[in-house]
Each structure stands twice: as C-alpha cells, then as structure tokens.
Amino acid sequence: MNHESLRKLLAPWGTLLPQQASDWRGEFPLPQVVADFYENVGPWGEVVHAHHGQTGVRLDARLQVSIPPLYRLWDFQNCFRWNGNTRERSSDWKDEWLLVADAEADPFILDIPSGWILFARHGAGGWYPKPFAPNLGTAFGSLATIANTKARLNKIDAFIDEETFEVLPAATKEIEDELASCLGSKVMARELLAVSEGG
Asked: How many Å apart are CA 90 and CA 76, to the nearest integer?
C-alpha cells in the first residue's frame, strides 16, 4: 500500500505530520521502512497533556490501536523489549523486533529482517507472535480500513446488537469485504482478522 493511500486511511484518526529519522531515539539505526513511513505518513496526533506530548494516531479497529509519533517510538518499547520496572532486557523479545504499534498492551511487531508485521497477545507467559501482515503498509492500512468501516457502521447503528452487545453478523461481513477489497484477497482478509481477533 502506498503512502498516499495510507495517509487517506489514517487521516480520520489523528493529525499526520512528516517526521524525520533524526527524531528516532533508539539504540540502533531506524529501519528504513519505518523511516519512510514516518517521513511520508507521519502519525503525530494531538497533545493530551504537556508532560506526555503527542498522542500519535489512535485507531478504533475493534482493538484500540495506538501508533506513536516517531520521537516516542523508542519509549513505546517499554514493558516489551525491557522490564518496565527494572529496565532489564526481556529474554523472550528478540533483538530484531521493533514494536511499531500497541493494541491495549498487545504488540504489533516489525520483524526487521523479514519486514513482516507480527501480532502477539500479552499474558501468555512470554511473547509468541503470529504473522499478521507481510509489511508495515499492509498492516496499518488494514487496521485503518477496519476502523473506518466500523466508524461508518456505528454512525448508522449497524455495528453492535443493542441487546446482546455483540457485533452484528452483517457488520462482520462488511468489515471482511472492505478488508478484502483493500488487500485484494478475501483469504488474506480472513486470515488477518483471525489473528487480530483470536490471537
């Protein structure tokens, strides 16, 4: 998915502002695919509190997904790459992994050598990520497509059953269809949804 398409999909969810690789605060060089994403798409968000700075982009994609601004990306590795209290490196977090988004403490991980985005559930006694999307653009474009479809359905009260609070079957199908259109593959859409919804 190209950067222009990504900008259109992410625009409803927060301010986008080009950010340079020099904003990176990490201990190793910023992967080029991440640098390109921030320079050309640039999730920036709003200021909630002066101490916390920019929020980045926050997607309501059934999971609440946060994509931080680049200057905060290294800090987002906290509690994943290292222990949040002791700062000791996590033995089950691979050196070649970079957290690129967070879904309620469930990480979306860039596997730097392959370029794949992986997704893991917390609370499993370690990190056991599953393949989510073949690249960063596909991952974020898919999440934004889910969020945009959900928002549209919510506006016409066609997402949740008001009695059971469960997602309506027609809404599930529409999300799958929109995702399949975005990805060009119904099989890939189903696989991606299965990973994000079932872990």
From this structure: 14
Which pTM was predicted? 0.93
Got the DSSP string for 59-73? EEESEEEEE--HHHH
Distance CA 187, CA 6 (A): 21
Q: Which two tokens stand for residue 70?
A: 């680049």
Q: How far apart are CA 59 and CA 51, in angstroms?
A: 22
pLDDT, averaged per 10 consecutive residues of the chain (199 residues), comes to: 95 96 96 98 82 84 93 93 85 95 95 97 85 97 96 91 89 95 94 81
Residue 73 φ/ψ, nearest 5 degrees: -60, -40
Question: Do 146 and 179 contact (CB within 8 A), yes or no?
Answer: yes
Contacts of 14 (CB under 8 A, 6+ apart): 43, 44, 45, 46, 55, 56, 57, 58
Q: Say what the pLDDT of residue 182 is.
A: 92
- Write the DSSP assignment of 93-121 as a string of letters: S-TTEEEEEEETTEEEEEETTT--EEE--
- What is the reported pLDDT for 49? 59
Longest dimension (CA), the chain: 51
pLDDT at 199: 47
Block residue for tokens 């320079």: 39
